[in-house]
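Quick note —
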Amino acid sequence: MSKPRIFLNAASSVGYIVAVSVILFILYRYLLLTIGIEQLGIWSLVLAATSITQIANFGLSGSVVKYVAKYAAMERFEEVSVIIQTAALTVAGFIGIVLLAGYPLTRWILRLVIPQSSLSLALGILPFAFVTFWFMAISSVFLAGLDGLQKIFIKNVLLVGGSTLYLLLCVALAPRYGIKGVALARIVQDLTFLLFGWVLLKTKLHGLPMVPHRWTLSTFKEIIVYGLNFQVISLMSLCYDPLTKALLSKFGGLSSVGYYEMASRLIQQLRSLIVSANQVLVPAIADLQERLPDRIRTVYRTSCHLIYYLALPMYSMSILSLPLVSRIWIGRVERGFVLFGVLLSVGWFFNTLNGPAYFANLGMGELKWNVISHVAIALFNLALGLWLGRSFGGIGVIGGWAVALAAGSSLILLSYHFRHRIPFGELIPPSSGALTGISIIAILAFFFIMRFRVPSKDPAFLSALILVVFFGAILIPLWRNPMRRRLASWIVDDMAATRQET
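Predicted structure written out below.
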């Protein structure tokens, strides 16, 4: 894949995240006013409980990206068509069976973590959650096919359109039907992804039939081996968000789950803004693995420098802005939301630094340490969540999750550098020293001012003031950083390539 194409896909991914972030900001603010924080927490818990059916996914979406990119690079498009159809039919069949069989288990789990007063409402929307999860699982295969064909721009346009539709449907249905209206809107959104994902995929791969029907055992065996590593990751992921929300409901209550959901989505969208630009390396590295394997190290080093250049100031800004965001989004400075956001920002920052190594492993098909890392995160989260939750309540649960996330993720980066004999000095470029210093000073000043602020001063006002000072201080180092010049050159190259194509 050419550098301009990589940049186009990365830029479209960033644009998608920005658009979806705005939509989610409006949506959650509207839902807070319409259905309330506790019902938002219930919907979040129900979706988390439904995710146990991921055990039937086999990680085939990850396999689709890998093998579609591989065979497309060889121009073997018949195999590409069979891979997509086999994966889609496998996921649809097995997920459907597990959803039916797992329904009683999910009801039992909800009875354990949801208070009796809210249980009937949760059980009432459970079937809606199961339907939307089935649609989402199938559509994920089609969207992965677009990724593998390096049509990430098209996929992102579809995702923005579906998210906009979800917002509009929530506005139309939530006032009348409450949380069931939100569930119905989600079903329509995921059905849209499924249908339009297949149509768009078919326009780019003419060998696809009108309806997926071709399934071959040989193709299934080929993609399942790679996918089973993803399946282990999926199973471990059940000890991430679902377990965290279950522990938070037990030790902190449904309101805490709702505020955690909002803080988590905020930080996850910020993380996605950075990681999605890096995620395009999976098909790119899979392509290089077939043609120019010697260039992988150069791509990895550049990716590390880019991630650090983007992640450090952006996560710093997320911490500094939390009181202001709380005032705008919730209507007041909610202490739980702010503390959750700080802890999640720290945990996801260290996780984000491991992104280049994680995606390089995916592209090369070396998934051992990715799997080990996810197992470690899951075990740490369970142990720390129970221990700290009993001692410190909801804050302890989220603190344990942040530590587990940071520590477990670091195993990927450490193993990658040792295996490929890459000096750790290549991870953080010397040119980013000023960025590092300013970010650390700003965060320390933020905690000091918030801890010892004058009682009459609004935390949101202080947050805005610190943000302005931070932005002014960091602007010059950001501009002078060599990575800024490289980004500018990629934009110029991409615009020139686009003009040549047209």
